[in-house]
Amino acid sequence: MMDIMALKKGDKAPDFNLEDQDGKKVSLGSFKGKYLVLYFYPKDDTPGCTMEGIDFTKNIEKFNKLGAEVLGLSADSLESHCSFIDKHKLKVTLLSDPDKELIKKYNAWKKKSMYGREYYGIERSTFIIDQHGKIANAWYGVKVQGHVEEVLKTLRGLKSSS
Questions:
Q1: Which of 22, 106, 122, 134 could form a disulfide with 42 if both were Cys (CB 3.0 to 4.6 A apart)?
Q2: Could you say which of 28, 49, 102, 129 is catalytic?
Q3: Smallest Cα–Cα separation from 21: which of 55, 70, 72, 87?
Q4: What is the pTM (predicted TM-score) of this model?
């Protein structure tokens, strides 16, 4: 498997056209003129992913006030996303990338290891995409605790300098 370079500040954000939990097509172009927080997470309804979804949900109004939309993305099915949202009352839009094409374009598909077993999976990653479709900030190997606050702080800094 070819390792794609990590995305960094100033790179053009890879475009997408994926379905959200309601089966509605969502593309990068839908967010022109706004900031977009795009976060990749391994799996619906697992402890870390649930905590991250709840943290983004608790802060969704703060993101919206800063002119930002929040999208979560995993390879889970639309049905899985719907039950995840319903179960935890999430207010974030979740995109499904079952073929992992976008996950790979954002370099969030990594070799992992657990208990000595190696496998490929989604590395928790977050990107702020600016109003012009460029990467304004990128985090790879995200730790859930305190991450949403860090993303908000970064977004506030971007807004005040623009």
A1: 122
A2: 49
A3: 72
A4: 0.94
In angstroms, the CA 17 to CA 27 distance is 4
Q: Say how many C-beta atoms besides its own lie within 10 A of residue 92's C-beta.
A: 23
Give the strand pairing for 93-96 and 125-129.
unpaired
pLDDT digits 0-9 by tens, 80-133: 999 999 999 999 999 999 999 999 999 999 998 889 999 899 999 999 999 999
Amino acid (one-letter) located at 26? V
Asked if 84 and 74 count as a contact pair (C-beta separation under 8 A), the reply is no
The contacts of residue 46 (CB under 8 Å, 6+ apart) are none
The CATH number that applies at residue 64 is 3.40.30.10
Residue 12 lies in a domain: no
Angle at 91 between CA 93 and CA 11, to 5 degrees: 40
